[in-house]
Amino acid sequence: MGIVSSAKKILIYGGVFSPPHFGHATCLESALRLFAGDEIWLMPSADDRVDKKISVNAEQRVEMLQLMLAEFFPQTKVPLTISPFEIEHPELDTTYKVKQELERMYPNDEFYFLIGSGLWQEMKEDWQQGEEFGDSAKIIIVERAEVSLPKSLPKNSCLIGEPMVKSNVSSTFIRSLLADGYSGLPYLSPAVANYIKKQQLYTKK
Q1: Most Cβ neighbours (<10 Å): which of 29, 166, 187, 197?
Q2: What is the pLDDT of residue 54?
Q3: Residue 184 domain-assigned?
Q4: Do residues 12 and 105 lie in contact, with contact meaning Cβ atoms separated by under 8 Å?
């Protein structure tokens, strides 16, 4: 008789992660404290996203994520995994399509999606198939002190409270610092800042 695997609760934290920074780490910290699941998958976007111009390739973004996790989260009760799912499936060009394919490939597992509270309004208004995603996905929202919650939240969503350390830093802001010759510290982990310097990423062309 075959062994039937038990269903897992898997939290997906998707993003460009260009570069991965302190704000990403604070969201992860909240999820690790407050999400009662089995695994967390960090899922970097594919290089050829239609909605964003990505100047650093997927391999480099994955390497930076690995460095950040090694520094900030060397040991966790819930396993943290960098998933190449979106990178390997560039045809899945919306988060809704990613959700559908994950559910098709892993029918026994239950997927949740982690977002910051400021992202839902953008998702609903600007993302392709954003409303379809919001209506069908299980969404874990990290509340941020500097962002007002919208009047309506996704119907299958859950707020998990503010991070222990508040941060409103963005990748766009950090890229502008790096382009002007700054190190990106303290918004980046030292290992990520050093990697960016060695690889000469985000410099003005």
Answers
A1: 187
A2: 76
A3: no
A4: no
